[in-house]
């Protein structure tokens, strides 16, 4: 049985860790990011991977700097290091510590979308195809040689959270198959650096909606950031997250960013550059996600009202 150290933090890493455990390949050690303050009370909160490790009695460390634990990890004599959405730099000593080196699960068809937001970037671009790449870690971000790669078709109106789950499940199955069927070290092929594209870290400014864009671009932005962190616009001086929308054939009835109409039991439309878009789900500041039809009733929306103030 392959001895491995599993290094990850976000929910994307959970299906892989879970599938390995279910198939008799638990890690000799799990490494995740330190607990961080979260919620209204800013209580220290473990990462999803830490929570899984703790609930399944797996050996776990949460170092501030993983590269200061090389000797500790070396004592375990792992065959390979597996990383998935860890959120920290893995130094050269760690990358070369195990005979099988260190491999990473990445939710894009590398070299396209190297960086922190491959899933969001694919949705923003309106891509019809995504996928998973397993590659060996190198000094340059997401640039290591490819070990395995599979595509995955993006479903119509699929949002970030749904696509992330399907890609995580795909990555888990690919990893299990690789560990069960391929000898170490894995065969690999260099990436074509000339075809590489980079994607940025998601911040609040990237999630803001510009209503002077075509409806498709706005819908893609809403999909790319749902359910978290949420594409947003201003409404009556406060941020309003828009989490689900449908494009309508109706031409704009007013200025971009103004409410076109209120549709009973469905929500409200907003005028975009080329047509109108129906807002179906929203989240007001400090509130839970709600149907736009319920939000309309409480906020008493009216046609012509602006969504940028």
What is the topological layout?
Blueprint: E1 4-8, H1 14-22, E2 29-31, E3 36-38, E4 43-45, H2 48-55, E5 60-61, H3 70-74, E6 80-84, H4 92-95, E7 102-106, E8 114-115, H5 118-124, E9 129-136, E10 146-153, H6 160-181, E11 198-199, H7 204-207, H8 215-224, E12 231-235, E13 238-248, E14 259-263, E15 267-271, E16 276-284, E17 290-291, H9 292-299
Parallel strand pairs: 1-2, 1-6, 2-5, 6-7, 8-11
Antiparallel strand pairs: 3-4, 7-9, 9-10, 12-13, 13-16, 14-15, 15-16, 16-17
Kindly describe this structure.
The protein has two domains: 4-199, Rossmann fold (3-Layer(aba) Sandwich); 204-299, Formyl transferase, C-terminal domain (Methionyl-tRNA Fmet Formyltransferase, Chain A, domain 2), CATH 3.10.25.10. Helix content is 25%, strand content 27%. The protein has helices at residues 14-22, 48-55, 70-74, 92-95, 118-124, 160-181, 204-207, 215-224, 292-299; strands at 4-8, 29-31, 36-38, 43-45, 60-61, 80-84, 102-106, 114-115, 129-136, 146-153, 198-199, 231-235, 238-248, 259-263, 267-271, 276-284, 290-291. Helix 1 (14-22) packs parallel to helix 6 and helix 5 runs antiparallel to helix 8 (215-224). The mean pLDDT is 96.
């Amino acid at each position: 049985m392959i001895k491995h150290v599993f290094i990850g933090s976000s929910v994307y890493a959970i299906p892989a860790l879970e599938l390995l455990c279910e198939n008799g390949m638990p890690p000799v050690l799990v490494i995740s990011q330190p607990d961080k303050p979260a919620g209204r009370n800013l209580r220290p909160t473990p990462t999803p991977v830490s929570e899984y490790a703790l609930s399944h009695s797996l050996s776990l460390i949460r170092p501030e700097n993983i590269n200061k634990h090389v000797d500790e990890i070396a004592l375990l004599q792992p065959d390979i290091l597996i990383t998935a959405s860890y959120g920290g730099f893995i130094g050269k000593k760690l990358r070369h510590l195990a005979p099988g080196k260190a491999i990473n699960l990445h939710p894009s068809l590398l070299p396209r979308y190297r960086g922190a937001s491959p899933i969001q970037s694919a949705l923003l671009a309106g891509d019809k195809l995504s996928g998973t790449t397993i590659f060996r870690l190198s000094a340059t971000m997401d640039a290591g040689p490819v070990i395995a790669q599979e595509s995955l078709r993006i479903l119509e109106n699929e949002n970030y959270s749904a696509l992330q789950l399907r890609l995580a499940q795909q990555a888990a199955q690919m990893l299990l198959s690789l560990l069960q069927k391929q000898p170490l070290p894995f065969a690999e092929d260099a990436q074509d650096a000339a075809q590489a594209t980079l994607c940025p870290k998601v911040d609040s400014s990237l999630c803001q909606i510009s209503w002077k864009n075509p409806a498709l671009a706005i819908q893609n932005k809403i999909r790319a950031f749902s359910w978290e962190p949420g594409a947003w616009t201003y409404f009556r001086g406060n941020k309003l997250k828009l989490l689900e929308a449908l494009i309508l054939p109706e031409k704009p009835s007013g200025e971009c960013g103004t409410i076109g109409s209120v549709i009973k039991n469905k929500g409200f439309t907003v005028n975009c550059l080329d047509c109108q878009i129906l807002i179906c789900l929203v989240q007001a500041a400090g509130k839970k996600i709600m149907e736009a039809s319920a939000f309309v009733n409480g906020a008493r929306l009216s046609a012509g009202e602006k969504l940028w103030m």
